[in-house]
Design a protein that fits this description.
It comes from Streptomyces zinciresistens K42. It is a single chain. The longest helix has about 50 residues, at about 100-150. This protein is about 60% helix and about 5% strand. The chain is elongated, with a radius of gyration of 47 Å. Strands 1-2-3 form a three-stranded antiparallel beta sheet. The two termini are about 90 Å apart. The protein is mainly α. A hairpin with a 2-residue loop joins strand 1 and strand 2 (about 270-275). Helix 11 runs antiparallel to helix 12 (about 350-380). It has helices at about 100-150, 155-160, 165-185, 185-200, 205-210, 215-235, 235-250, 250-260, 280-290, 315-325, 330-345, 350-380, 390-425, 430-450, 455-465, 465-485, 490-510; strands at about 265-270, 270-275, 305-310.
Length: about 525
């Protein structure tokens, strides 16, 4: 360089030197991008920096965007404040789109409104199903009882067989048969024949005339003899066997009575239900002939009937019974399906189960009250001259006893279901019961473990899967009741006790686990005293 040339201006400071003598280039421009460039991006033709590739939804990749304007103190602006108070570019909406605070608030409001409408729709559907269940519960029980009694001969015989052993019914049958047998014995003809025989034998006229006075004593004697024979027949095993056999053969007549058919042993005539006892009369006639009453064989043998009850609503009852007979096969299934769907559809399953069970229990109470009211109406409608009150009461109670037993069984099942649903809830009493049960089973399990009987892995599995095991046990008990042939209240109580016993045993086994060991070999905190989740 010539001495008269001016010196060059100083260039930019290369910065401090590195330990190896090379100048420090400054801060790290960042990782290399996929296109080979570094830092904030490639320089565009207009001199601006490329912010980076776009996302599929059109927004820029925040990892390659400009971090934002600097604050007055030199720090970067983190962006607008989020609704939760944190800083950032804003919450994400559907499809990962970044929303502003106002957009996010609108989105949450619409989402909550949609959830409320959805819950209201579910509650509406569940309420309709609950109403259908309650309305069908009483007809379903009556329909099942009617179909079972009509279609099953053994069931029908089991229903009417006890009537043959009821003293009130035996007394009515004895009185009616005695009256009809004596009414067919011509006592006047007997006394006249006796007087004629005496006259032919040369008896004094005074003696012949006094034979007419024998009508009363002779009729009383015949009545006593006939009553004694009839009573022996009616109270014997022969009558009970004849009764059962006659009812078994007349079962088709019961079907006809329920459907309005007027043929058979049990028939509907006008506004009355009558029972044909012709078979019994034939047996009595034969016994009388065997005892020396030859004229008993001449007793007419029309269809002898006993009026069971009379009502002016018989035709309406027959229409209802025919409908129930047709619906008896599927109406109970439909009712059970509606109840299950109501519980499943409702957002609060446990509460809907509680309400459904309580509603069914109330319906069964109404049915029991209705049976008592119908019994009173039936007894008042039967005149004492047709059937004594005690006999009418026995007949009614015998015919509806299976219906009453089924109603009581369903009432107990509904109450137990409602109680179980409540005990699984957040109520104060429910929590206290669960705590006491957990303390009891836990203490028993720890005592079992202290005695050296520990359940190990099986106990831990039971403790971890407590909800599953509880559901399986309760489901097994419910299935047993469904498959049981005509369960009674005693059967329901037995099944519930077995379920509670199995649950208690499983809880004790789940608590009888060895204490868990810490990594250093010592006992872990809590030493086997585990608390079930939930």
């Amino acid at each position: 360089m010539a001495p008269d040339e001016p010196p060059l201006p100083p260039g930019p400071d290369p910065g401090p030197e590195r330990p190896d003598g090379t100048p420090d280039p400054g801060p790290d421009p960042g990782p290399e991008r996929s296109d080979g460039s570094q830092g904030p991006g490639l320089e565009r033709s207009d001199g601006s920096q490329d912010p980076g590739p776009e996302r599929p939804d059109g927004s820029q990749d925040p990892g390659s965007q400009d971090p934002g304007p600097e604050r007055s103190d030199g720090s970067q602006d983190p962006g607008p404040e989020r609704p939760d108070g944190s800083q950032g570019p804003g919450p994400e909406g559907p499809a990962g789109k970044v929303l502003s605070a106002e957009e996010h608030a609108d989105y949450e409001r619409y989402r909550r409104a949609g959830a409320v409408r959805h819950r209201r729709a579910r509650y509406g559907v569940a309420s309709v199903l609950l109403l259908v269940t309650l309305l069908l519960s009483i007809p379903a029980v009556i329909a099942a009882w009617t179909a079972d009694t009509v279609s099953d001969t053994d069931r029908y015989v089991a229903t009417v067989a006890p009537l043959a052993s009821e003293p009130a019914v035996q007394a009515v049958v004895t009185d009616r048969l005695t009256e009809r047998v004596v009414a067919n014995v011509d006592v006047d003809a007997v006394t006249k024949a006796l007087g004629k025989a005496l006259a032919d034998a040369g008896a004094p006229p005074a003696v012949v005339d006094r034979t007419e006075a024998l009508n009363g004593p002779l009729k009383a004697a015949v009545t006593n003899v006939v009553r004694d024979i009839v009573h022996r027949v009616v109270t014997s095993d022969v009558f009970r066997e004849t009764w059962v056999d006659a009812n078994r053969r007349a079962h088709s007549a019961v079907v006809g009575m329920l459907t309005g058919d007027r043929s058979g042993a049990v028939r509907a005539e006008g506004d009355s239900i009558k029972l044909d006892v012709g078979t019994v009369i034939d047996t009595v006639k034969q016994r009388l002939v065997d005892r020396g009453f030859d004229k008993a064989s001449a007793i007419p043998a029309p269809d002898q009937q006993i009026t069971l009850f009379r009502t002016d609503k018989l035709s309406e009852a027959q229409d209802a019974l025919r409908l129930l007979d047709v619906m008896g096969a599927w109406l109970p299934v439909l009712t059970l399906a509606c109840a299950a769907l109501a519980v499943w559809t409702a957002p609060a399953h446990r509460m809907m189960l509680l309400v459904t069970a309580a509603g069914v229990a109330v319906a069964m109470i109404v049915l029991l009250v209705g049976l008592a009211v119908v019994r009173r109406v039936y007894l008042d409608s039967v005149p004492a001259s047709v059937l004594p009150t005690d006999a009418a009461a026995v007949i009614y109670d015998t015919f509806v006893r299976f219906l009453r037993d089924s109603t009581r069984t369903l009432l107990v099942v509904a109450l137990i279901t409602a109680l179980a649903a409540y005990l699984y809830g957040p109520g104060r009493v429910a929590r206290w019961v669960r705590r006491q049960a957990a303390r009891g089973t836990g203490a028993a399990g720890r005592a079992l473990g202290d005695a050296g009987l520990r359940t190990g892995t099986a106990g831990r599995w039971l403790d971890t899967h407590g909800s599953w095991t509880t559901g399986i046990v309760i489901g097994g008990g419910s299935l047993a009741l469904l498959l049981w042939n005509r369960p009674t209240v005693g059967v329901v109580v037995l099944v519930v006790c077995l379920v509670l016993l199995v649950l208690a045993v499983l809880a004790v086994l789940a608590a009888a686990v060895p204490p868990r060991t810490a990594p250093d070999g010592g006992a872990a905190a809590g030493g086997g005293d585990f608390t079930r989740p939930g």
